[in-house]
Amino acid sequence: xxxxxxxxxxxxxxxxxxxxxxxxxxxxxxxxxxxxxxxxxxxxxxxxxxxxxxxxxxxxxxxxxxxxxxxxxxxxxxxxxxxxxxxxxx
Length: 90
Hints:
Layout: H1 2-9, H2 13-35, H3 49-78, H4 84-89
Helix pairs in contact: 1-2
């Protein structure tokens, strides 16, 4: 949500507050998960090098895929002149 707001209006105090609260909630989640008897995601998995590297690899592949889809939608709307509905169908 902070990224969408930042793209629309730029950096302001709301964006900063969302970023700080997101980081704080991530730290809180990691703290709770490390202390839980049966966690949602065992943090011990990240000690396995292959799991950690493949997780980061998948994350970056996901980010690149979404970047390409974003650029394709902007191309179809800006250069080709399609409306957002038809651009999203292609």
